[in-house]
Structure formats: C-alpha cells, structure tokens
Specification:
alpha+beta, 5-stranded mixed beta sheet, 25% helix
Length: 394
C-alpha cells in the first residue's frame, strides 16, 4: 500500500523557514488556529478563535507574528499524526472554518475540453477518446489561445453557435462570466492526511488539483493553499444540473496543508506562476500518474475571479476560500485502452507546489469515509465551552 507521503519534509513549502504558515488542528479539545514557528505548531486560538477572525484582521501577517502562543507541539509530531492514518492527535484539519467554500470551473483550456467531452458523451468514459479528436477538429482552435471575454471569444461563439457546436462550458470558459459555484458547506472540508470521498454511484471520476485562495469579505486575497475539488465526471456528464451531486459529497473537498499568507516572501505573482504537480498512486493495481502544469495557463487572472465572486452583488462577511480551477483532467488510460482515468479505492492523491507544500489524501467511497458531524452549531458550542465565543469577531 503506497504511503500518503514518503518524506514528511515534502508536506511543507521548500522555503518553509521563511513562510508565514497558518492552519487548524484537532487538539482533542476542539479545533485550534495555529501558526508554524521554528519547527513547532503554536496554538493562537486565544487571539484568533477562528481562522476567519485571523484572515479578516487588519494585518494577518503582523497579527500571527505578534500573537502570544499557547500550547506548542513539535511540527514533526503533528505531521506524523496527520499522515500516519491513525487517530493520533493533534492532527491537521482543513485550514479554514467559517469561510464559504467556493470554486471556479472551466478556467483552463484542458479542463474546458474535458467538460465538453463529458457533456457530449453523456458521462460515458468509453466514448471519450474518439470524441476528443473530433472536438479538436470541429473547434479548429487551440482554446488556450482564446482570451476569455474577448472579442476573439465572441467571434468564436458566433462561428460555432449556428452550427450547434457552442456549449455551456465554452460559455463559462470563454464568455464574459466565469463559472463560480458553492463547492461544499462551511466546515465540511477535510485536511491533509484525511480520506477523500467519491460517491459509490460513480464509475468515472477524478481528482481536481487546484490552488485555492483565501479572500476576505472585502475581496482582498490574503493567502493561498492547495485544494482537491473531487469530481464525478459521469454524473456531471449526464447533466450540468447535477453539478451539486458531482461536486458536493462527503469528504469531496480537501484543503491544506496550511494557508500561506502573503508577505515579503510570497505574493500574488508567486501564485500566478506556481507549478502544480499531481501524483496518483494506485493501491490495487500499481498505477502511477505523475504530471505537472502551471497556473500561468489560467484563462482569467485570479484577481478577476475574486472580484467576480465578492462584490456589491454578493457579500461573504466571513470571507471565502476560492478553488481557482483545475489544471488537470486526467486522461491516462487505466483499466483498458480508451477507458481514460478513474479512481480506484485506496488511491493516494498528492497535490504539490514548491511554495505551498503537499496536500495528500487517500480515496474512499463517500459513504465509508468518516462522516461529517462537526457543523456550525457544534463549532459554536465548542467555542462557548472553551470560553472563546465572546472573542469571535473582536
């Protein structure tokens, strides 16, 4: 059985000593907001009871650097507990709590083509390979060369629409309005080391490795992390109206390992140029996929996505975490020529980027993954019991 990670140091950014890394852990008494300092995980919950309090503060970086810490744990212990696939505590949680979990779709040309294939095949993976070549000929363009919302995109629509070749996916990928949807409920995301879930009804599914950005209630991007927007291709392929079922299942949203706050060592431009690597290691068949892609191929700048999501038309008083779209739609054959990629139970999925670290999880059915039971009411009750409720939002 492949391990979740073969070197604990790979969980952290390559320049972790310089990075401002914040996250959340399960300490046994409840979720704690933490910062990484000098090889230790330091509890700063007494200063920032929720991650949203931290991200919404006037200066998050100064806030965490000046915060008086409480309990401290060796970083290696927290990582070992999180990735040891046991119940040992403390362990990493998803590094967000009250932020709304939003996701942008069809933001890369490669994933745009794959969404078209899902749509045209009705979610049948066995028809995907043949249709992929047909679509490339019909469109007659490299979609990566078409700027979203541009006059060139409008001309392409005018050419394809009369021929019945325009699509709802081309509309959100190239038109003036991006696709931004609610990925999952508040507090339902899982962290690094946890199981991720695919619904048992799905026979064609995939990881969606993404950079996720932390956006405040005023629309300011203050940091970034890694995400897996687990997707059921056959379900969405049957109908785009089934997107909630394709996207929102138990353990289908993963984030972590930490949020890296923007500071002198890490900026928006580092996110714009980030390399994102996807590894999938099969438990039952020895399957290996290892590929990399780059955020510079995104069709809309991440600031455009943030501004579209948070603004006068829609407010998020506790902020959002926005999955910015997947760079990958794996098409590697697994289980037979032309069948494409789909998950097997036990797969290890590693999503990594040099400046953000590695998010790693093992695949299970959503019905068998640990049930999500710690909702908003439980969170409020826990904060109250710990004497922190009066400090929230202060």
């Amino acid at each position: 059985m492949p391990p979740l990670i073969d070197d604990l140091d790979r969980v952290l950014p390559i320049d972790a000593a310089e990075a401002t890394l914040v996250g959340r852990i399960d300490s046994g008494s409840g979720p704690c907001v933490v910062v990484v300092r000098d090889g230790h995980v330091v509890d700063i919950t007494s200063v920032f009871p929720t991650m949203s309090d931290l991200l919404e503060s006037d200066d998050p970086v100064s806030g965490v650097r000046n915060a008086v810490g409480g309990t401290t744990w060796p970083l290696t212990e927290v990582l070992a507990n999180s990735l040891g696939e046991t119940d040992a505590l403390p362990r990493l949680l998803a590094p967000v709590d009250l932020s709304v979990l939003k996701a942008a779709g069809v933001t890369f040309a490669s994933s745009m083509l794959e969404r078209l294939i899902e749509e045209r095949t009705g979610g049948n993976p066995e028809r995907a390979a043949a249709l992929r070549g047909e679509l490339e000929q019909v469109i007659g363009r490299n979609l990566a060369e078409v700027e979203a919302g541009s006059a060139d995109a409008a001309r392409l629509k005018a050419d394809l629409q009369p021929r019945g070749q325009w699509s709802q996916y081309l509309e959100v990928g190239l038109g003036p309005d991006p696709e931004v949807f609610t990925k999952a409920p508040i507090l339902s995301a899982v962290g690094c080391g946890a199981e991720i879930g695919i619904a048992s009804i799905s026979e064609w599914n995939n990881p969606e490795p993404e950079v996720a950005i932390a956006v405040t209630s005023t629309g300011q991007i203050v940091g970034a992390t890694l995400g897996n927007d687990v997707n059921l291709r056959d379900i969405e392929g049957r109908s785009a109206l089934l997107l909630p079922k394709a996207k929102d299942n138990n353990a289908s949203a993963a984030l972590g390992p930490f949020i890296r706050l923007f500071d002198d060592t890490f900026t928006l431009d580092d996110v714009r140029t980030a390399e994102v690597r996807l590894q999938v290691l099969g438990e039952d068949d020895g399957f290996v996929m290892d590929d990399a892609s780059y955020m510079r191929a995104i069709s809309r700048d991440i600031t455009v996505l943030a501004e579209y999501t948070v603004g006068d038309a829609h407010q998020y008083p506790d902020g959002i975490v926005l999955y910015t779209g997947t760079l990958f739609s794996p098409i590697h054959d697994r289980g037979g020529t032309g069948k494409g990629f789909t998950h097997h139970l036990g797969d290890v999925v590693r999503i990594s980027s040099p400046r953000l670290g590695t998010l790693t999880n093992r695949v299970n059915h959503s019905e068998k993954a640990p049930r999500w039971t710690f909702g908003v009411r439980a969170f409020i009750a826990n904060l109250t019991e710990r004497g922190l409720i009066g400090k929230v939002g202060a």
